[in-house]
Design a protein that fits this description.
single chain, four-stranded antiparallel beta sheet, 4 strands, 31% helix
């Protein structure tokens, strides 16, 4: 079942493979948007465990990662285009 998720991470030295991580997230085959420096919203049929297993290939043991399903109850300070995309493509 396709669901909305938040992915947040901190990549610490030495690896910091940001581009590889971006490619993996885009490859989840669903809608996605990078809303903050290290935070994405995605809509995918993958489970959090499946996403973490894919991401694990490009993060180091000292990096941090959080993946969670989200609900359609949110607020924040983003630009109008981002809000529209979130409304139409994530929820």
């Amino acid at each position: 079942m396709i669901k909305p998720y938040i992915i947040s991470y901190d990549l610490h030295s030495p690896g910091q493979q940001y581009e590889d991580l971006k490619k993996i997230i885009i490859g989840f085959n669903g809608a996605y948007i990078k809303i903050l420096e290290s935070t994405w919203l995605v809509r995918t049929d993958l489970t959090p465990e499946e996403m973490v297993n894919k991401i694990r290939s490009v993060v180091d043991t000292n990096d941090s990662l959080f993946v969670s399903e989200i609900t359609n109850n949110y607020q924040g300070l983003l630009n109008k285009d981002d809000w529209e995309f979130i409304k139409e493509s994530i929820f």
